[in-house]
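Per reviewer request, we include the raw input and output of the structure prediction for the construct analysed in the revised manuscript.
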Amino acid sequence: MPSAPRPRVPEGERYYVIGDIHGRCDLFDELILAIEEDDRQAGAAESSVVLLGDLVDRGPESARVIETARQWGKRRKVRYIAGNHEEMFLESFTDKEMLRHFLKHGGKETVLSYGIKKKRYNELTMKELQDELHELVPKKHRKFLAEMEDIVVAGDYVFVHAGINPRLSLDEQRSSDLRWIRDRFLKHRDPLSHVVVHGHTIFDDVESTEYRIGIDTGAFRTGKLTSLVLEADDRRFIQAQEVDGNIMVMHREFA
């Protein structure tokens, strides 16, 4: 019995899909250099980068990650998917309870990355900090985050932040599931319409099943940031990893 055809992206296209960066701009910088060099060496193709969201929080350089991502998109085709941390960040500008929640889940590091001193941060009430946010965060950053997408489809693949609701078609998906879903998606074992490439849930290494590929390798915690490279039916990885204080780039074949 012939084996099922391998999933493919459209002919002539190449995708570099990057997992959750979470403020680790040092890793992001090195991965950008590695992707640009890889794209030059891999031959002619219509290449696109897709960032799977959670650019911000937890790591030390969220502001610089946002600016770096924005600038990269001016030089090449980059598509940006919103994660749950972008959602919390944006809502924090108008909702004090969300700001409180945001700060407890890595948002403090994001606020500090915009240059406010820790002493002043600690002195501010929640209302004062919310007012300060409007001054600290450039409007162009808020606009950039607000314009992020929820879902990108490429041939037999779909790129999202957290996953999809397996009971709904792609056209029926809700933003809340695409940004927040976990167990209902991760525990699903039946066929899906597309192979889902996602972040949101940290794995020690890339987690691949027949119907999904999880590429959040915990950059802020493990020092490892992963990009999945897709071309035709080929799949491979480029990873930037901190080892003994130095960042190394590794190219790996898909197991």
